[in-house]
Amino acid sequence: MLALRAIREVCLESMLSPVAMSLAMGLWDFVRYGITGWGAGAIILFTLITTHLTIIGVTVYLHRCQAHRALELHPIVSHPLRLWLWLATGMVTKEWAAIHRKHHAKCETEEDPHSPQTKGIDKVLWEGAELYREAAADRELVERYGHGTPDDWVERNVYSRYSRLGVSILLVADVLLFGVVGAAVWAVQMAWIPFFAAGVINGIGHFWGYRNFKSPDTSTNILPWGILIGGEELHNNHHTFATSPKLSSKWYEFDIGWMYIRLLAMVGLAKPRALPAEMFLDPSRNQIDAATIEAVISHKYQLMALLSKSFKKDSRQSGSQPGVVEKWMELRKEFEAMWSRRHTSVDQAVSSLQSWCNKAEASGIAALVEFSRKLRMASPRPVTA
User: For labelling, which of 156, 317, 318, 367 has a CA lying 20 to 30 Å from the CA of 270?
Assistant: First the structure.
């Protein structure tokens, strides 16, 4: 800036012709303000809008549509999002989807590409983008987990082949629009996803927050309102129902990504998969069999959450009644442990659940008796024509 100001002063003090002076002043204004001539407020708003668009591209297109197949997007939506992500991130769809799928498949093991439990919270939070690049360099990983992603001409010959060209084009565009300030706008755009998605979600989302469901990992909901990071803040909900297009679960939670999906679906530009349904109860059933086990396994995290909620409510109401809290804790832990065992046969699961229900009903605790009654009525949802 000092050098530019010096040039301006020289031009003003020299014997330049009026035409040359006009050109010099025009060049000076262009370097300072770009084509738009916008002030600070408008530039900040532009930066926030474009970074939000990047977040929506990641959560709706890369994450929910490509990695988990939780919805289908019309080409009118998917192609512009692919183009914008190429410009704003340089990320390759196949690589991103493969890395995320492996994260779910090997969650919090040494093979997890970005687990704070194995690599440390500082590493994932501040160097999440570097972990992404390391994983993307593993071609075996990308080929094994990246199936089903776009493989058309533009993907092969532009987006994947020249992944760095897009961000370079965006830098030039920002500078043309806003002058030298455009470089700062571009720097914010480039840092947004590496910090918030790769760092905050992959790091803090497995380190700190609240949990609605006892999924077999340390995933947490960072905030109940998923706005800044497109709904990805509700990470525990996502790990519990990975193929659900909706990440909010409780009435007070908000997933802005799901809001956009619903708006697109209303005009026929998106087709989301069915949401996780409540467990189907058949009043005519009063037995525990293989069908019961199928229904319970499909809803085990919801049932664990319901049991914990009932425990807290009953504990407050029962007060100091001797043995009630202890019996609750014993049966709750036993129920949760029942579904964490591996290599359990259906017959063993039927026997274990039957035994648990008998204990619950014999406890004399009304909430446990009611919970057991619902388990006995549990049945796979009937197929409708």
Answer: 156
